[in-house]
Each structure stands twice: as C-alpha cells, then as structure tokens.
C-alpha cells in the first residue's frame, strides 16, 4: 500500500496487457494473487505445488532458512538461475535451475513476496524498487 | 498397411472387442461367470505395429522390442530383467528443468504405493546419455530416495536405442535445441505386462492419470496372477 499509486499504475498496465476485462477491484485481486500464480506457472513443476521440493533432488522453498538468509540474492537467482551445490535446511542439493529472463522486475517482486510471506516463511517483502536494485547487481533489471 | 492404419487409430473399443473375442474362446475351459468379470476389468493391449502382420487375424501390436541397457549400478538390464513382472517406464534426463521433477515425483508416488510388491518394477530411461553417465544416474536415483536398482532402474544406452524405445513405449522424445534443456519429450508413463505388451499409457504430469495408473496396476497384477495359475495347471 505504500506504493499505492505505482501499484495501481502497474495494475492498469497488467490489466491492459491481459485481456482488459478486469474491473478495478478484480485488478487488485489479480495483483494480490500474481505471486501465487507466477509460482504455479514457473516454479511448481520442480519445487512442488506446496513448495515442498522433491526429496534430495529439488530443494523446498516452503519453510526454508535459505529464503530468509539469501533474501538479497534471490531476485538475481530467479533471473539468472543457479548451478552447483547449495544447502537448504541442512541438506545439500545439486541441480540446475533455469533463469527467467521472461519475467519483469515487478513479477519477480510479486513472486518472491509470495514466497517470503507464505508456507512458513515470515520474511520482509521487497518493494519493486528494492528488487530492481538487487537485480541490478547481476545486470538483471529490466526496469519494469 | 491397412492393419497398420487400424492399429494406429484403434480405439479402446476396438481393442476391447478383440479382447472379448479372445475371452470367448477362453470361456470354453473356464467358469464363464468369472470370465465375464475378468473381461470387463481387463486393460486394453496397446502399442505400435512395426512389422507386417503374419496373417489376416494377426492384428495385435508388436511387443516391446528386445533391449539391452545399463542401469545406475552399472548392471546390464534386458527384457529378461523384467521377466514375470509388470513394469512402468518413462523417459527423463537428470538436468531437465521443465517437466521431469514433477513427472518423477508422480512416478515416485506410484513406486511408494507398490513399495512391498516385487512384481512391480520401474524403468526410467535417460534421453541425455551424453550427460547422464552411470554415476550421474546413481546420484539422481539416490537423491530421489531410490537406494538401489532392485525395483527402479535408471537406465542409459545409445541415443538411437533410447529414442527407438521411446517410440515403442508410445512416448514422444526428441532432440530440440529450442526448448529448455535441449530435449523435447512427453511425460508419458507406459505400463508393460510380462508379455512385453503395453497395457496403458498415462500422462505423468496429470495427477488424475497417475491415479488411474495406480488403479490399473492391481487389475493387471490380478490378470498376471490368474494366467500364471492357469499355466501352472
């Protein structure tokens, strides 16, 4: 809500970008769910529909220390993907995660905010500005 | 050629008809009431026709061809490895970023459902043999929670062998540089009986279809058991 004006602006853009049939209230609902929807589309196949991961193959994103501890790195992790071993909740994983050049900064923000505030994660959400700045570290900000 | 067309387009109904005809003959020597029940619960015979029919009545699909693969423990596996068993097969690759984790987690669900049953085996083929060496396959299997190859084989072979098998198991798999990971493949699971016949194909990405597989497996196991009992008489 701190970013009320900006959110509403993005909201209109999003509504126009989709089918343009969303009413204002529908639009806000859409924004609130965008993170969850993006998760379902881009993440759930590997990380599970409840963020549970897959055995020792794919790390969970629900209730994990990693999401809190690597908060500042997560926007670039989504953008550029990941390769090589990492430890989540004390378990070592080693899989390739593809990057997502197809998401806008605000989509990455919404996706991460969904993860940071759901499924047992209680971490500070990002503003779009903050996420864009963090994405700048890996030249991954598209400014949108 | 007409038989080939028939087979490629054959529906469950046609197959059910063929099965019903077969069961009528069987009815001569067994209790017709139980045959009727068994008949309604039999899974269809599926698969592709690769050879010319040997006679006008030879209309069934060809069995799964002979194969020789290597599993995650470096052991050679062939059709004989699955003799007297039923098995579920799929195609994946270890670094697959798209459908594989979901697919393998669904197959894992089936595996766990039949945990104590030595007659149900699993066979996952890598479609990226260049990357998925035996140690990579073993690591993948272990990470998935499959400690040894007793019931679930993660197998490799030459590209040609794997892709030909994918076709035989009615799974689409091909090299495609435009998709993430470099291979396009469907998430199909094929259920194969002890006579190397495909008895079901399921979309491993759809929970409802995997539930259907879990439902169908005991039907096939019952049929296998009955046939083994008949053969023993």
Automatic annotation (TrEMBL), chain A:
Residues 30-119 form the Cytochrome c domain. InterPro entries: Cyt_c-like_dom, Cyt_c-like_dom_sf, Cytochrome_c-type_DH. Signal peptide: none annotated. SUPFAM superfamilies: Cytochrome c (SSF46626). The keyword Nuclease does not apply. The keyword Transport does not apply. GO terms for molecular function: electron transfer activity; heme binding; metal ion binding. Keywords: Heme, Iron, Metal-binding. Coiled coil: none annotated. This is Cytochrome c.
From TrEMBL, chain B:
Residues 38-61 are annotated as: Disordered. It comes from the Bacteria. Keywords: Copper, Disulfide bond, Metal-binding, Signal. SUPFAM superfamilies: Thioredoxin-like. The keyword Transmembrane does not apply. PROSITE patterns: THIOREDOXIN_2 (PS51352). One of its GO terms (molecular function) is metal ion binding. Residues 1-26 form the signal peptide. Disulfide bonds join 96-100. Cu cation binds at residues 96, 100, 185. This is SCO family protein. It comes from Hymenobacter perfusus.
